[in-house]
Design a protein that fits this description.
The chain is α/β, with parallel strands linked by helices. The chain has a domain of 157 residues. The longest helix is centred in the middle third of the chain and has 15 residues. It is globular and about 60 Å long. It comes from Dorea formicigenerans. Keywords: Iron, Iron-sulfur, Metal-binding, S-adenosyl-L-methionine.
């Protein structure tokens, strides 16, 4: 199948067969995300989905794990999901699990009976963009849910056996709030006990709504040292579940080419040591920001040379005054 857009799936799904059933994301409003910004959301015709399944079968494929793409396939209406699952069962009856991205809202829109039906039809892992442990950050970033709503919907899917995997983001709370976010996020994850946690350091680029907040001073990014300190605190606070469950953690600081991975809390000391070494390496260097390469060659001096990223109150006041004059 000719794929449209960027491939986006959790690293745990790298060995899965990715079956596109939609283009883009049905929500596509998160301030920090540009994965689907240039795509017009649409559901792919079932005939096209079946043609892809037939193509793979004709090539001798027999996938045991299938990931439905793109963003938030769980948000499809039940009739559409049923039809897709019917096609998968027709061509690959030996498939053992079907995984996909979801949102708290897309879970809320499905009844308990529908959730049970999806589990019975081999749907297993749902990847949720939890991002932050702080409600004001979730609201600012235009996430669709609050923490209380997330608790409620995660409990519903876990009751029927569906597996919750969490996507979180170091730096999403902005400069000076990394520790606060780590503590709140650890509390949430310890209570909900996802099977897996994927943590990406927040990337900064000029094609998303968050960039305008950075320009106005409404959001001041944390540098990568603060992001690593936040991640270290998060790992330090993660606990095993009441049944001895260990969460699989995979943390990415792609800009620094740093990755920490393991089960928590069992592997936490090794992961913390690796982060501490990196923090010591960079803490006395000029601030490093995780910008998208090519967007801005020097993130501290971008957007026509104006200072954007390391603003104290006086610099922010000067910047805002200059903006008023320019406008």
């Amino acid at each position: 199948m000719e794929y449209e857009g960027r491939i986006c799936r959790a690293p745990m799904e790298r060995a899965s067969y990715m079956l596109p059933v939609m283009v883009g994301c049905s929500y596509n409003k998160c301030k920090f995300c540009n994965l689907f910004r240039d795509l017009k959301y649409r559901e792919l015709p079932l005939e096209q989905v079946e043609e892809e399944l037939q193509r793979v079968k004709n090539l001798g494929g027999n996938p045991r794990k299938i990931f439905l793409g793109d963003g938030n396939a769980f948000g499809l209406k039940m009739d559409r999901l049923r039809a897709i699952l019917d096609l998968i069962d027709k061509y690959f009856p030996d498939c053992q699990m079907i995984n996909m991205d979801a949102t708290v809202t897309s879970i809320r829109l499905k009844s308990d009976e529908e959730l049970q039906e999806l589990y019975d039809r081999k749907v297993r892992h749902l990847y949720l963009g939890i991002e932050s442990g702080l409600d004001d950050v979730l609201k600012f970033m235009r996430k669709e849910h609050t923490q209380d709503q997330a608790y409620k919907e995660i409990a519903r899917i876990q009751r029927v056996g569906l597996i919750f995997d969490a996507h979180v983001m170091s730096g999403v709370a902005g400069k000076g709030r990394g520790q606060e976010n780590a503590i709140a996020l650890a509390e949430f994850l310890n209570k909900t006990q996802p099977d897996r946690i994927v943590n990406f350091s927040l990337f900064l680029h000029n094609q998303v709504a968050l960039y305008e907040d950075i320009k106005s001073g409404a959001f001041i990014p944390a540098d990568e040292v603060e992001n690593m300190e936040e991640e270290r605190t998060l790992i330090e606070l993660l606990k095993e579940g009441p049944d001895g469950h260990q969460m699989l953690y995979d943390g990415f600081n792609d800009f620094l080419e740093l990755r920490v991975k393991g089960k928590v809390p069992k592997d936490a000391p090794r992961m913390i040591e690796k982060l501490t070494e990196a923090i010591e390496k960079y803490k006395d260097e000029p601030p490093i920001y995780a910008y998208v390469r090519g967007d801005c060659p020097d993130l501290s001096m971008c957007d026509g040379g104006r200072w954007l990223w390391e603003m104290d109150d006086s610099k922010l006041a000067q910047y805002n005054e200059k903006e008023k004059k320019l406008s």
